Amino acid sequence: MPTRILLQIDNDPQPSSFDSVVAIDAGAEQLLRYGNVQPDSVVSLVHGAMFTRGGEDLRSTAIFIGGSNVKAAEELMATVAKTFFGPVRVSVMLDANGCNTTASAAVVAAARHIDLRNAQAVVLGGTGPVGQRVAQLLAHDGARVTISSRSAERAEQACNEVREKLDGTQQLTAVSSEQIKADISILEQQQIVIACGAAGIELLSKEQIEELPNLCVAIDLNAVPPAGLGGIAVTDKAQPIGSGVGYGAIGVGGLKMKTHRAAIQALFESNDQRLDAIEIYGIAKNIG
Ligand SMILES: NC(=O)c1ccc[n+]([C@@H]2O[C@H](COP(=O)([O-])OP(=O)(O)OC[C@H]3O[C@@H](n4cnc5c(N)ncnc54)[C@H](OP(=O)(O)O)[C@@H]3O)[C@@H](O)[C@H]2O)c1
Hints:
Layout (H helix, E strand, L loop, with lengths): L4 E6 L6 H9 L4 E5 L4 H12 L10 E6 L3 H14 L7 E4 L4 H13 L8 E5 L4 H12 L3 E6 L2 H14 L6 E5 H6 L2 H4 L3 E4 L10 H5 L6 E4 L16 E5 L2 E4 L5 H15 L6 E2 L1 H11 L1
Parallel strand pairs: 1-2, 1-3, 3-4, 4-12, 5-6, 5-8, 6-7, 8-9, 9-11
Antiparallel strand pairs: 10-11
Helix pairs in contact: 2-3, 4-5, 4-10, 4-11, 5-6, 10-11
The structure holds NADP nicotinamide-adenine-dinucleotide phosphate.
NADP nicotinamide-adenine-dinucleotide phosphate binds next to α5 and α10.
């Protein structure tokens, strides 16, 4: 078996050291790191990966796409996919800013406490890359999902973007924080609350969470004080809160890290894998 080579392609000037460490821990034997990669400069990198080895050996080369700009990383992913043809391809994974591994770990943690089919879930601050993926994965498994934002338009736009990634049968509703304030029943019906707001922003207080009558699980993905969900510590893992349990960002972090490593390992199993939100969620589910 040839050396396992991972091309780490990143849209930031310096490729993420976090992603490099995880790649090496997951068994990448040679890591080729490229920063500041744009769609027009990625093609030659992909050619270098796909034209140097042939047949079975192609599975020992893979591509990881990262960077803090998730939209730009999605464009890179689309360009990479278009560059392949027939069997002349290598496996590729997108986890820019940890969006897919973090969202996957959060939804798997939620599913430990409630059957997602027909569960009522709200994704607070759900317009960002992590929130949209959390909403996508919850809806994919049958939950009825509400996305909240400070702006009704941005919430609706996020719902539309999530719908485009699904088959159209899923239930997604947009609400603004003003609507939530004006109508308490929007929160009261929720069984799953996942806070995906920007770092260091409280979205719900401890009292608000404790008053939710149907709450099964509340997850806060913000690791920067103050907590996104009051009363949930960053290390909490299935700690009782109100009528349910709570997880903090580090509480779901163990599963996120395992998922990231397992996804890198999966890249080297064949040369035709495209690991994005749903595929990485599948890997997280297998870990549990
Ligand atoms: N544990 C991990 O490994 C890990 C990995 C990645 C991310 N994270 C965390 O996961 C969370 C979501 O990540 P992300 O990259 O999706 O976040 P993001 O894009 O930075 O922010 C998500 C949303 O937060 C809302 N927001 C921004 N400023 C706000 C404010 N002052 N008040 C209320 N809402 C505000 C915005 O929605 P609107 O403007 O539409 O209201 C924004 O779309 C973050 O806390 C991040 O730190 C954790």
